[in-house]
Design goal:
The protein is mostly helical. It has a domain of about 45 residues. Helix 3 crosses helix 7, helix 3 runs parallel beside helix 8 and helix 8 crosses helix 9.
Length: about 170
């Protein structure tokens, strides 16, 4: 998914450059501005184009079930009641998953300028953007499979090196 390791060198460089900047420049920097209505609208459109709501569509029932299971584990005598209440609670709280979408809009609108968001909307509406939207989940899934296969194979290499080094010490493992 997102590689923090790729971001860290750039972040460290940016931090080092910031430390070297004149104090007057640091004082002139204003607090981050609130996203514009246009940026918010574009962020919403991007998330709609990417069908981001599918990621959290079942969040409420899933969390209700998880909490119910935890409560049952702590209150075995109330299992029947908690099982009966779960659908009622889920119905009562239905729609709250949209709070996740609103938060995601805020993230996008805070991380990109209004113009960048508009450019992204244009891109995602293009044939290549549509292809990315369609194929990215499969590409990410396959990438995870490649990473897992590599990790499994590399673990065997590492274990072999440990065994060889231990054998040099006269200890078979």
């Amino acid at each position: 998914m997102k590689s923090v390791l790729k971001i860290m060198p750039a972040a460290c460089l940016a931090f080092a450059l910031a430390l070297g900047a004149a104090p007057a420049i640091a004082q002139q920097q204003a607090a981050p501005q609130a996203p514009t209505p246009g940026a918010i609208a574009a962020a919403k459109e991007i998330l709609k184009l990417k069908n981001a709501s599918a990621m959290y569509a079942n969040a409420v029932p899933a969390i209700v079930d998880k909490v119910k299971t935890t409560l049952i584990g702590q209150n075995l005598n109330y299992q029947k009641d908690l099982n009966e209440l779960a659908p009622v609670v889920a119905k009562q709280l239905a729609g709250r998953e949209q709070e996740i979408g609103d938060g995601m809009v805020g993230v996008y609108a805070g991380e990109f300028t209004e113009q960048e968001l508009k450019d992204l909307v244009t891109f995602y509406k293009s044939p290549l953007g549509q292809k990315l939207i369609t194929n990215e989940p499969k590409a990410v899934n396959l990438s995870v499979q490649v990473m897992n296969a590599w990790a499994q194979n590399f673990s065997e290499v590492v274990a072999g090196v440990f065994r060889a080094e231990m054998k040099k010490r006269g200890k078979d493992i």
